[in-house]
Structures are given as structure tokens and as C-alpha cells.
Amino acid sequence: MSYQALYRKWRPDTFEDVKGQDHIVATLKNQIKMNRIGHAYLFCGTRGTGKTTVAKIFAKAVNCLSPIDGSPCNECAMCKAINAQTSMNVIEIDAASNNGVDNIREIREEVGYSPTEGRYKVYIIDEVHMLSIGAFNALLKTLEEPPSYVIFILATTEVHKIPVTILSRCQRYDFKRISVDTIADRLHELIEKESLDVEERAVRYIAKAADGALRDALSLLDQCAAFYINQKMTYDNVLEVLGAVDTSVFSRLLRCIIHQNITEAIYLLEEIIMQGRELGQFVTDFIWYMRNLLLAQSADDLEDVLDVSSENMAALKEEAQMISPNTLMRYIRVFSELSGQIKYSSQKRVLIEVALVKLCKPSMERNYDSILNRLALIEKQLADGVITVSAGQTDQNGPQQGMKDDETGQGEQPASKPAAMSEDVRHVIEQWGKIVSDLSLSMAAMLKNAKVSQGEGSSLVLAFDTEMQKGYFDQEDHRTELENVISDKIQKTVEVKTVFVSHEEPVRRDFFDPRKMNLEGVEFEYED
Description:
By secondary structure, this protein is of the alpha/beta class. It has helices at 6-9, 22-33, 51-63, 77-83, 101-110, 133-144, 164-167, 180-193, 200-209, 214-227, 235-242, 247-258, 262-274, 279-298, 303-306, 310-320, 325-342, 348-360, 368-383, 405-408, 423-430, 432-437, 441-446, 467-474, 476-490, and strands at 40-45, 90-94, 121-126, 150-156, 171-175, 386-389, 451-454, 459-464, 495-500, 523-526.
């Protein structure tokens, strides 16, 4: 006899063997026991969760001559005929290849004939969402008022494509993704029956890689077992066969990104490629790794949700402290976008390299979470006591702060105040060092290039030479915090307004440059 795939060999033939769909199994068994069988059912859910399997078991159960607690006995003539696929009572139709009006008309003609044996004729229409609009319309009347001996079971992975007129005529059952624990337990059962030697970590990885589909898990196990015949199947063996990457690589990659080490990150990707790893799976697994880090930051006692051991959970929590939640969410967003792009791309490596550069260089993006990432880097520089400013940002009318007298060829020169300075601006200038020192590190950094002037009424105008800095103080909570600190220092209520002045535009003489003031507690270092 030819070899039979594991998912076919061990397909459940009773309700008791169905895993992870207890709510559906209990309902169907009760209907059979109480003889309250419907005429149309809709089974929907992701692939490999048991829709067709449950449909076949239900078809056997309603025709079984001696059912046991609502489940087929698998011993009577009807059960054996259905198992052998020789019964005329169970008709399976693939709607993907039989989706026309004529196919449905054939069904309408056939339902007029009662079964020669057994109680019910059961039509199982798989991938029913593939039917054409005309075919759905042809099915409507028969589905609504079929003969008493006919049952329709419609199965689909895309229930949103089913017309409402069909949905309203069916009992709907949603098949859930099967948990990793349930899949792993089932794999252990079958591994023992197949006399395979498989490492526990390998079983858990296969269960996780199946993504909630037990059929996929059995196919992956079959693939790995075929490669390592008569050998112990280890975790590394499974990674090798499936083209997956060990989680330690994700830890190394994340550290490269955090430290903005583009060169090391690209070399690490090269290493992964040379090992023959599947790049699409690598992207998906890295997203899940970062998701686990984010959840580890958010709450305790999440071992069950994260599906990691206590040892790995401790490592996750340690790594989670290295990065802020906002930055981590940006990383997840960038790689999630990459996941959608890479699926149909012929240049997967290039797309991943671009994404890695983007993560290491948040200045390449202008959206909100990238700005937060850049602020986090600035805060770290400030916390270390040193912030670097390029020479192009120095004031044209005076020497850079932090430069010695002999570096400029001039002695110390006091900052010249604009001639038309108002009293409010003067007070702000006099208190500028204290104002800045009372702000958060990120806000103080955003003010380093700001210029101040008197506005209309009791308002103060801040001029910025970058849209990012202006946008930061355009946010109401940031602007309010600054207004409160200024008001506290000059003992007067003020309203802060912002303007943008490009590098090319001359700065108006009534704007004062606070970079000529000493910012308390911060050492400025300038690059050439």
C-alpha cells in the first residue's frame, strides 16, 4: 500500500477525536441526540481547523444505524460505506472548480431523489465562497426549502464573500484557530503512535509554526520526519528543514538596530541568507519576537499568552528593558508593512535591507512614531551629558557655545539683545536657563534651536528651523507644558505660538537666539 500523509491517516472519524472545537462538537452532538437536525449549516474559519472533517463526521452521524452519544459508531454498514467513500448519501463538491449555475442545477435535480439507504443525503460544498453570483441565486430556493431528507453543509475560509441571502438560511458555526498547547498535545499522541523520536522544543516549534491549523502541523511534522528518517528530530533539525531562524538571532538583530549598527545588521542578514533561511518566514518570526517583547513590557504573568518557557520569559523581560514601547511599536509597524510587501516581491532581500536601514535611521521617516524614536535617542544623549550639533546649525552672528576663546580668535562676547526687545521677552531671556532646566529632557532638546520674540497681546512667538521641532510644540500638551513653565518663571500668563523659518531665510532682528544662553546642566559638543 502506498504511503499515506499523516493528516489523512490520522483524520478524526468521531467527534471525540476532533481537537480545539469543543463548542461546535457539543452543539452538533446534542442536535443528533435530540433529533433536532437542521437543513443547512455554514462552517467557516481558517484553513486546517477541522471544517471538512466535522462535516464528514456529521454526515456519518446522521446516517449511523447505532450512534453512540451523538457520534457515529464506525461499525455499521452505513458508517463503513461512508468511510470507504462508496456511499451515495454523502456528496462532496469543490466549489472552486464547480462554481457555475449548471453545477448547482444538477444538485437541484438530484435532491428530488430520496436516498436508497440511510436517512439523509448530505451535500458538503467546500470553498463555497467561490460560487458565482448566478450559482448562489440558483442555490437559494433549494437551500431555503430542501426536501426533509437533504442536508447542506457549506464550508468556507472567507465568510465575508457569502451573500447575506445565503447566510440567513444557514446555521453558522465559526471554527477557532487551535491553540499551540492543543496542537502540541495532539502531535505528541501521533508521534507516539508513529514511533518517532522528536525533541520537545521541536514539537512546540512545529505547533507554533502551524498558526492554529492542526492539518498544517501534521504536514510540517510529516516533512521533518521524512528528512530525518530513523533519527532523533531536534529543534535545530526542524529549523533546518523549515528554513526558520533561531530566536537568538532575533536578539542579536534587535541589539544591532537599537545601537544603530547598520553594518552589523546587514552582515547578520547575509548570514541568515547564506544558511538558506526562508526570508518571508524570517520577517514573520521577527514580528512575533518583537510582539512578545512588547507584551513582556506591558504586563506580568503572560507566559501562557507568549507561549515561552520561564527561562525564555526572563530573557524577554531583560531585553524588553533595552527599548521603549513607542520605539518597539515603530519597529513592528515597519516590519508589518514589509511583511505585506515581501509576499509577492522578487527582491525580498533588498526590501528587508531597506527596512533595517529605516529602523536604524528614524530620521528617514516623518511620521509620529519615528519622531518619538528620534526623541528617545536625543534623550539618551542628554542623559549621557553630551549632545552633538552639526556645524551648519551654529549661529551666524556669534561663536558656537562650548568653544574656547582661542578657537574663535575672539574673547568672550556677551549676547547682543535686539533693539526692540519687549519687557516680556526680556524676562523670558533672563529666565531661559531656569525655564529649560524645568522641562523634560526631550522638550529641552527640541528648544535648542528655537528663537523667541514678542507676539500680539500676551503671546510669545517661537521660531524653529525644522518642521519636526515646530510640530512638536504644535501639539497641545507639549505647548501647554511650556506655557506653564514660562508663566511660572516670569509670573505672567503667556500664550506660545510657533512659526517656521527655513535655513535660507534671514531671521528677523526682533527674534532672540537662546542658544547664546548657558543651558544649565547640559554640555554641548559641536561637530565640524
